[in-house]
């Protein structure tokens, strides 16, 4: 990447991570804001018309992905200034510190080492003097051995039948990643084993996930980093009851051992739940939940697609990690994506970001990214506890194309909000049937063209549209998009895409000086829910000490659920 000027210590303080003066007081920020004022009204039509090389120059490559930034409202100078800002924010030092295992998650005092999950054997990454790479490979080997046994039928349920369905029980990072990846890679599920995912504490979730399953052929993977998450433990207990009730006389003493495995960092709680630690797959506190599906949290995925495909996915992650570490910031694609996001949020004030995969198998990708991005960068204080100087993480949303075109693209094309959007397209389909793929790709291309260039009033008039309708049929254009093109969706490409976004999120967090790896914002609601639950179920009328609105909501529930 770049040589780092000042190495961040292994156990840094916020001051070691932040630039000495706030970024907004830097010359780099002043230059960027001046530049923004100069170009903010330039239309993409003019930017393309005045520069025939623009598309070539602003298209970058990372591993197997091509990333075209040219339909964004920026110039080469914008990127140069953003890169300057990233240097001022000490991004190269932070990337280096992450790969070295420094405790850059300062509010939790933890290293941030999802990159170690895909490090090849032989690489050394130390946390507290211990090389963690052999630990990663030991767990991968255990996962592989277990997956092979389930896939081959050597592992059977309590009645001796093969496993047909793996049900992952988890929530947040212990659900969204494996669920998204299973949907994306189900074409590789070649052992006759399908996966399902239960996350919501709403009983409807586990009810529908299990209603047509045979307990004798069902394996539950209870996935929870902490093994204290109430939704997961509640669903796991319901799953255990369902299994034992369903097996009845066939259960035998080892039914739970044969139908339940755990993925966690918390062996004591796994044991307390009744799962034999021999059937537990571990990971480490330096893997954030939302960065964890390439750890043992991906076990359900590995059982479905097999260890070899899982490792191909890890190789895809790794390729982008290497790019992050070794490529100058000027051509470092995840860094540029993160900086372009900062450009829109902080300079233009566009505060939402759409991710639109033109691939049905990536339908869950936006939901996965919502946690990755918003739980990471939805913060308003900096590492040192001071208020953020700039608006932080965007609101991330999206669905698989072409569905969104017939729902909310109206707003993207003609609404008063400007929504920067990532369009993700694939050159080859996974299901080559009829004319579907050219049609899909045509829409992927056409949407970004329409958003960028629009349709002028004169163009509308030439079509003979009555004057009264011209305004309604005019498209202003100048709506920014990034096109990400991949050869085809496969395990490796999925790893590349996820790592691309992981590192873009890191880049944005470094600019804002926030801790992208904690999530204190989820705590208060959890604590209050724990207080409210007994108030809903107490036999005697509880003395409610909430605000009047909350008290009334609780009383309504009690009235509807007497006794
Ligand atoms: O509540 C948020 C969170 O802590 C996420 O960060 C995490 O991915 C999710 O809950 C699940 O946590 P666990 O894996 O410990 O059950």
How many whole angstroms does the radius of gyration measure? 25 Å
Q: Which whole number gives the mean pLDDT?
A: 97
Mass-distribution shape:
globular
The proportion of residues in beta strands is 5-15%
Based on secondary structure, the structural category is alpha/beta
Q: Uncertain regions: pLDDT < 50 for 5+ in a row? A: none
Our measurement of the CA-to-CA distance between the termini, rounded to an integer number of angstroms, reads: 65 Å
Chemical compounds bound to the protein? 6-O-phosphono-beta-D-fructofuranose
Count of individual beta strands? 13
Task: Outline the biggest β-sheet.
Answer: 6 strands, mixed
Strand order of the largest sheet: 1-2-13-12-10-11
Q: Helix proportion of residues, in percent?
A: 40-55%
What is the tally of helical segments? 23
What report would you give on this structure?
The chain has 563 residues and is α/β, with parallel strands linked by helices. The protein is 46% helix and 10% strand. The chain has helices at 14-17, 27-39, 44-49, 54-57, 76-88, 91-100, 133-152, 176-185, 203-210, 230-247, 255-259, 267-273, 299-305, 307-326, 333-348, 365-377, 409-414, 436-453, 457-462, 467-470, 491-512, 523-537, 548-560; strands at 59-62, 65-68, 126-127, 130-131, 165-169, 194-198, 218-223, 260-264, 280-282, 352-357, 395-397, 421-426, 481-486. Strands 1-2-13-12-10-11 form a six-stranded mixed sheet, with helices on both faces. It has a five-stranded parallel sheet with strand order 6-5-7-8-9, with helices on both faces. Strands 3-4 form a two-stranded antiparallel sheet. α8 runs parallel beside α13. The longest helix is centred in the last third of the chain and has 22 residues, at 491-512. The radius of gyration is 25 Å and the shape is globular. The mean pLDDT is 97. Residues 171-174, 224-226, 229, 232, 289-290, 375, 519, 522 line the site of 6-O-phosphono-beta-D-fructofuranose.
